[in-house]
User: What shape does this take?
Amino acid sequence: MIRLAHICRHPIKAHGREDLASVLLSAGACLPFDRHWAVAHEAAKLEAGWNPCANFTRGAKAPALMAITAALEEDSLTVTLRHPERPDLRFRPDDPADLPGFLDWVRPLCPPERAQPARIVSAGRGMTDSEFPSVAVLSLATLRDLSAKMGQDLSIHRWRGNLWLEHLPAWGEFSLIGRELRIGDAVLRVEERITRCRATMADPDTGRIDGDTLTALAENYGHRDFGVYATVLHGGRIALNDTVELR
Assistant: This one.
C-alpha cells in the first residue's frame, strides 16, 4: 500500500526547507507557501508574475544555500532561517525594512564571483521551476536505488520535493504520468518528469558538494530525471501516512 511519508515546503525558493505534518491543497495551486518568495539576483531580468529560475539565487550556483532550513509563521508571514555557519535569522520577506538584514545574512553563503542576491520577490503563485503551478512528487524507493548505485545515503532534502511516497516501486513514478493520485481528500494528476541540476550534488546538512548525482543518473539510468511534477485537480487536506490511491 503506497503511503505519504514526507511533506516538505520551501517558503523562499532555494533558501530553506520545512517539514509539515499536514497541509491543505487547493486546485490549480502549488503547495501552500511553497516557493512563495524567491531571491532575485543583481543580474535578474524579471517580468510580472512567474519567472524562470535563472533569475534567482539558487543551490545550483551557490551550494551552501542547500543547508538552510526554514520555519514559516503563516499568520505574520515571518520566516526563521537557520544554517550551520550563520546565526539564526527571523524576518518578514515582504517588509522592505528587513531586506538589508537578510542580504547581509545570506551574502556569505553566495560565491563572490556570481551575481549577488539583490531583492525578494513574489508572484502570486509558487515560483517553482515549472511554468505551471506544480507539486513535486518523489519516491523513497527511487532514492534508495540511486543511493545504492552511488554508495552513499542520499538525503531527501537534496531534491527539494514536496510529497515523498513510500512503497511505490523504484522509478515507478515515471509510469504515473497522465494518471491521478488520490491522497487524503485531494486528487493530483502527474504531468511530467523533473530534470535535475547541480543543486542535488550538495549535502543538505553542510551545503558542500559531496556526490555527483547528475553523472550517477546519466550513467546508471540514461537521463538526469528524478521525481515528477503534478498538478492539483481537487483540493483537500493531506497528512503524513495517508494512503495514496492510483487512478
Remarks:
- The mean pLDDT is 97.
